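Inverse folding, one chain.
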């Protein structure tokens, strides 16, 4: 279907993978679908793919043949944002100005944190990656001041309470160390705000440098800083499988709260 050609809303939703046309009709009748910000409950409504913005349960609904998945190695000093009123560098600056649809980061890294960011227009998959309840693993390399003891590492895995939230690492180990600092491997699942930094502060070894090297089954590998690549079909299948462990991907039932936009680790 060409951009601008209209089709019935339930057919469009079915093409996004949200379910059969009948189940998509139910989503419309239940008031879960918005077109250009307006709730639509009429089954005869038509939309123009590529022109109209369609959301289901607050998440973008895009046909699978229009979906794009990129892995980006974010440098330090770049915002995980598409724009910044203060004119600071943003991840959009690292992408070509033409040839890609509007993409959004599936989760965030803070300004000084480096590493793997997944950019996509697949709202359902991004939701599964971002929401803490889906427990998609995020692996980091953290350079910390001093050298944590075995007891410190045990504390990271046992968990801490910070600002009323319980944080913990499912894995915590020393990769290497030298005079005055050590490199840690840390794996977390929740994706809380500044999670790694808060954990390391709690054991008295603040982060000096932080890089995300893995998101679920997706590895950063040797991708240079500031560069991007497309997700392979195997990687896409694997990350979808990781999300399915907690939900039926693309079931169209919605469920769960919409993720806060400020969820980010680092």
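Residues assigned per position:
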């Amino acid at each position: 279907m060409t951009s601008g050609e209209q089709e019935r809303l339930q057919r469009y939703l079915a093409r996004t993978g949200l379910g059969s046309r009948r189940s998509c009709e139910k989503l419309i009748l239940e008031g879960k679908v918005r077109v250009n910000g307006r709730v639509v409950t009429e089954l005869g409504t038509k939309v123009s793919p590529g022109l109209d913005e369609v959301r289901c349960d607050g998440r973008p609904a895009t046909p699978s043949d229009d979906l794009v998945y990129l892995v980006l190695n974010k440098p330090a000093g770049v915002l995980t944002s598409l724009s910044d009123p203060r004119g600071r560098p943003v991840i959009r600056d690292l992408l070509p100005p033409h040839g890609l649809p509007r993409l959004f980061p599936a989760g965030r890294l803070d300004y000084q944190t480096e590493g793997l960011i997944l950019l996509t227009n697949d709202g359902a998959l991004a939701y599964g990656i971002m929401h803490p309840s889906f427990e998609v693993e995020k692996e980091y390399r953290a350079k910390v001041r001093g050298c944590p003891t075995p007891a410190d590492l045990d504390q990271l895995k046992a968990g801490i309470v910070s600002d009323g939230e319980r944080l913990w690492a499912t894995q915590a180990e020393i990769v290497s160390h030298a005079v005055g600092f050590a490199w840690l491997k840390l794996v977390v699942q929740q994706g809380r705000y500044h999670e790694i930094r808060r954990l390391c502060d709690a054991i008295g070894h603040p982060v000096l440098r932080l890089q995300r090297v893995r998101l679920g089954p997706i590895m950063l590998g040797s991708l240079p800083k500031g560069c991007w690549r497309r997700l392979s079909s195997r990687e896409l299948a694997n990350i979808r499988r990781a999300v399915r462990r907690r939900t039926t991907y693309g079931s169209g039932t919605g469920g769960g709260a919409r993720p806060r936009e400020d969820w980010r680790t680092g």
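The chain has three domains: 7-58, 67-133+229-251, 137-215. Residues 247-264 have pLDDT under 50 and may be disordered.
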